[in-house]
Amino acid sequence: MPGLAGEIPPPAEDSGEQELVAAILRNDRKAAARFVAAHIDAIYTYARQRLLPRADLVEDTVQEVFLAALGGLRHFQGQSSLRTWLIGIARHKIEDVYRRRLRAPESLDDTAQLDRDPPDAAPMVDEQLDTTRAREKARSVIARLPERYGLILLWRYWEQRSTRDIAQAVGVTEKSVERMLARARARFKQLWLEE
Fold first, then answer.
1. DSSP string across 29-79
2. CATH number of the domain bearing residue 44
3. Are residues 98 and 141 in the same domain?
4. Distance in angstroms (rounded) separating the CA atoms of residues 110 and 97
5. Distance CA 164, CA 59 (A)
6. 25-29, 114-118, 119-123, 178-182: which has the minimum mean pLDDT?
7. pLDDT at residue 128 above 50?
8. Is there a domain that residue 38 lies in?
9. Which domain does 159 fall in, by range?
10. What is the CA radius of gyration of the chain?
11. pLDDT greater than 50 at residue 132
């Protein structure tokens, strides 16, 4: 019985979203344009925050999100808002970017310097990335890292993925991920102290 104390009313369906989906499925181009216009800023912001400093990857990723969404819209069940559904697609597309970039062969130049100068101790990356004051400096440092290092640090600390999850996604062993994280943290620390 609605209205009882402590009872949560069922979510109201957004008839506007359902009508929009139906119009898009009828190949209404104006409806598709309204769909993209309504959500592109949120998806672009979400992707940019997770892909920086690789801003060059953001636009392609956002396009992939909307292509996948429009292609799979007939499977949208309305259990969440369209924006929440799109964010879920974006999260998976961004993970695909991380996965592809981390699977690419590593350049010898990326590891040569670290082999000559082994790290003295792992920095406190968790605290540095979590503090508001250090966020901008961290982004700047990550932008200067070799791409593999920046991506793996973002995936581990920004997305809070476990080494096991990363290893499975990339198709390598956990030890390999741990070694790459150690090298990335060491390089991060070196650049952090120089800045």
1. HHHHHHHHHHHHHHHHHHHHHHHTT-GGGHHHHHHHHHHHHHHHGGG--SS
2. 1.10.1740.10
3. no
4. 20
5. 29
6. 119-123
7. no
8. yes
9. 107-194
10. 21
11. yes
